[in-house]
Amino acid sequence: MVLAGQEGASTNMRTQRTESRDLLHTRTNMADRKDESWRPQLHAFGQGSLETAKASIRRFLDLQSGSIWRDVSSELPHVRGRALDVGCGAQPFRSLFDQSVQYVGIDTIYARMHFGYHLPDTVYYDGVAWPVDDGWADFILCTEALEHVYDTDHFLAEARRCLAAGGRVLITVPFSARWHYIPHDYWRFTPSSLKKVLTEAGFSSVVVYARGNEITVACYKVMALIVPLLLPQGKGRVTAVMLRLIGIVLAPVVLMLAVCGNLSLRGRGGDDCLGYTVVAQGGEPR
Predict the structure, then answer these.
(1) Which GO terms describe its molecular function (predicted)?
(2) Is pLDDT larger for residue 208 or for residue 51?
(3) How far is Cα 191 from Cα 268, in angstroms, rounded to an integer?
(4) Which among 121, 69, 60 is positioned nearest to 93, based on CA atoms?
């Protein structure tokens, strides 16, 4: 009788393992993904009043972008000397620098292919050696780019090489953010890992600030469910119209969440946040 009971238990376990494997096999292998099901509109480049207004509306509705703008806009106007914007994309923060600053934006030659950005005054490079002399930059800006760099050690070593003695670097990275620009999104950093990789790269006085808190993230995630309804992608005409109608009905919810989310950004930040802003100082370039 004992043996019979053991045999029955063994059969049940095998059945459960088979069902578990079947359940796994019904899901998508995310490692094979090559693109996104929905992608936000690219940041526009322009200095006109219309472009400025559009950017302001975007920052209000896109809590991730708005939180980054809040942080960098408090730092960049005080920068002097030479500024290097790494992974600059559409150069959305260039206007925040003082006119006396010598600004150079660099990005990988794959920026257009992978991320959809290409500007005539951006210096494009092979993604390995930065096209900048040793110790040239007094300030380095790197917003939402580090997660797209596979070899972060080399990237930060290049930052140290290009930074002048006593220069500063400001880096922003996402945390509670969807997998984006698939498959070129590799990392999510914590304050512990940010301090570790920057310190090991030779930076000092590393300070990490959280952008937002649990309330910000909750608002951001619910908005992320509704906004794609207003701006459907890859859908048939009838489906797109139906989704937009649903999105229009829910638009007041988006506005309410945007207000709550922006108010929450005025807080001190929390463990569950949208992302992190890092400020660090360099010594003598290596």
Answers:
(1) methyltransferase activity
(2) 208
(3) 15
(4) 69
Regarding predicted confidence, which is higher, 128 or 8?
128
* Three-state DSSP class for residue 83: strand
Q: Residue 5 belongs to what H/E stretch?
A: helix 2-25
Distance in angstroms (rounded) separating the CA atoms of residues 206 and 203: 7
| C-alpha–C-alpha distance, residues 45 and 118, integer Å | 10
Where do the H-state alpha helices sit in the chain? 2-25, 49-61, 63-73, 152-162, 191-200, 214-230, 237-264
Average pLDDT of the residues in 109-120: 94
Local confidence band at 4 (pLDDT 50, 70, 90 cut-offs): low
280 neighbors 195 (Cβ within 8 angstroms): no
CATH superfamily for domain 49-212+272-282: Vaccinia Virus protein VP39 (3.40.50.150)
